[in-house]
Design goal:
This protein is an alpha+beta fold. The chain has helices at residues 13-16, 23-38, 99-109, 112-116, 120-126, 132-142, 188-194, and strands at 2-7, 50-56, 60-66, 69-74, 77-82, 85-91, 149-153, 166-170, 178-182. The strands form two sheets. It has a seven-stranded antiparallel beta sheet, with helices on both faces. Strands 5-6 form a two-stranded antiparallel sheet. A hairpin with a 7-residue loop joins strand 8 (166-170) and strand 9 (178-182). Helix 3 (99-109) crosses helix 6. The radius of gyration is 18 Å and the shape is globular.
Length: 206
């Protein structure tokens, strides 16, 4: 099993903890996470209040932790880890995920033209400046299932069994999401074990 933990610097928390609503948000999260895994940021003097963890076992997932809120998404890339550091990331088709391809994907995702019509094929046809490496990487990302799940401790919106204090949200879209109530607070390792098929199952009691 490979485990890599990286701090999230305060000025980037908004990138990693913005709500996931669609595949564009998922692609943004993945690509910034890949960059964070490859780059070592200077954190001396910074108050770190959140972090991300990559766990590769029979699963491959990213976990994000901030206060009493955790969430996780699939990480559809292969990684080479040396001394607890990610030295290389590639897609399952063999395409390298490096600083250039990451920058190209970010450029596409931030393009208002792409936001209006988030189709890699249409964007390629319509754009005169698109970098093919970024577009090919983005197309692969769009093909994967985000497998989003979030644990929430939500005292603000607590409403009995309709919106329990402790709960798990599964999926991010309004038409596909559902909620599971929990009786107690859960720690990060328990959250990870729920999603690891190599550990014992957790059971619903109702």
């Amino acid at each position: 099993m490979k485990i890599v933990t990286k701090p999230i610097v305060p000025f980037q928390e908004h990138i990693f903890f913005s709500p996931l609503r669609d595949k564009i948000n998922y692609a943004q999260l993945l690509i910034y996470s890949a960059r964070n895994l490859l780059i070592d940021y200077e954190i001396d003097g910074l108050k770190i209040t959140s972090n991300m963890k990559l766990i590769v076992d029979k699963m491959s997932r990213l976990f994000f932790y901030k206060e009493k809120k955790y969430f996780s998404v699939s990480f559809p890339f292969s990684v080479i880890v040396e001394e607890d550091k990610v030295t290389e990331i590639s897609t399952y088709s063999g395409r390298t995920v490096d600083s250039k391809s990451i920058s190209n994907v970010i450029s596409i995702l931030e393009d208002k033209q792409f936001a209006l019509n988030p189709s890699p094929i249409d964007y390629y046809i319509e754009s005169n400046t698109v970098e093919s490496t970024g577009l090919a990487l983005l197309e692969e990302i769009f093909q994967f299932e985000p497998a989003y799940i979030r644990y929430d401790f939500d005292a603000t919106n607590e409403n009995g069994k309709l919106h329990p204090l402790h709960h798990v949200d599964v999926n991010y879209s309004t038409y596909g999401t559902f909620k599971l109530g929990l009786n107690n607070f859960i720690v990060d390792t328990f959250f990870e074990n729920i999603l690891n098929i190599n550990t014992d199952c957790s059971f619903l009691t109702d």
